[in-house]
Amino acid sequence: MPDLPTRPVESLQNYKGIDFPGDIRYRQILVTGPPGAGKSTLIVHLGGWSEEGYLDLGKKHWWRSEILSVRPREIHLGMPFVGLDNAVSVFDAEFLDRDPLPPVDFARLVLPPRKRFFFSVDWYRRYVFEFLLPPADLVFERRRERARHCTHPVDAQLSLEICAAQLEVFRQVAAFLHRQGFYVYVREGTDSTPRRFLDAPLQP
Predict the structure, then answer these.
(1) Residue 204: its pLDDT value, please?
(2) Distance CA 203, CA 38 (A)
(3) Would strands 29-32 and 73-78 be described as parallel, antiparallel, or unpaired?
(4) Cα–chain center distance at 177
(5) Number of Cβ within a 10 Å radius of residue 138
(6) Helix residue ranges, H only, 60-159
(7) Is 0.90 surpassed by the pTM of this model?
């Protein structure tokens, strides 16, 4: 899947010293990204739900998951990959032990139904996905530092190449969700301006 160009969000609002798009609500925010992206730091700063929830995008009705009932929320994504029977995260051995690392199987990502009636839920506007995508070398340095303290088992298999590949997975998933009509934006860190994809998404 080719990269989509982005542009800075022009209309901003500020929550606790951090800029967010001006047309979203605080209680919509779901923060995701690869290991070491800074998800927990951002959510704790916002006063949101910092216990990382696991969301399997290959599972039916993931949009009704109980972990999404409390927002802002830190989530980690499970995804179907080519050649793997079950959805996994980018730090699972099933993903990391493949050579080469498998691509996302976008055909197996499950999407919610489109809003058809006035009183039905518009799942594509219920949530706002923030993808934290710092540069790979920064993520690698963060994770290498915390690996010295053995605080995160996900840092057991660590290299700059793995960090770059994990970032690319999340970048592609962000672009895919945007194309399908979800509200998605990306940023490198809490002190950077959020950015939106340039092309128009599908109309939910």
Answers:
(1) 54
(2) 31
(3) parallel
(4) 10
(5) 15
(6) 93-96, 123-126, 136-147
(7) yes
Give me 23's structure tokens: 């047309």
At 39, list the tokens: 């998800």
Phi, psi of 134 (to 5 degrees): -70, 170
Question: Which residue's structure tokens are 């995160």?
Answer: 152
Residue 31 near residue 130, CB atoms below 8 Å = yes
Six-digit token pair at 144?
A: 């290498």
pLDDT at 37: 95
DSSP label at residue 62: G
**Per-residue pLDDT averaged across 136-152, rounded?**
84
What is the rounded (10 degree) CA torsion for 126, 6, 81, 51? -50
Q: Name the token pair of 95.
A: 């993903």
Average pLDDT value for the chain: 91
Half-sphere exposure of 161 (CA within 13 A, CB side): 5
* Single-letter amino acid code for the residue at 58: G
Nearest by Cα to 167 from 130, 129, 128, 135: 135
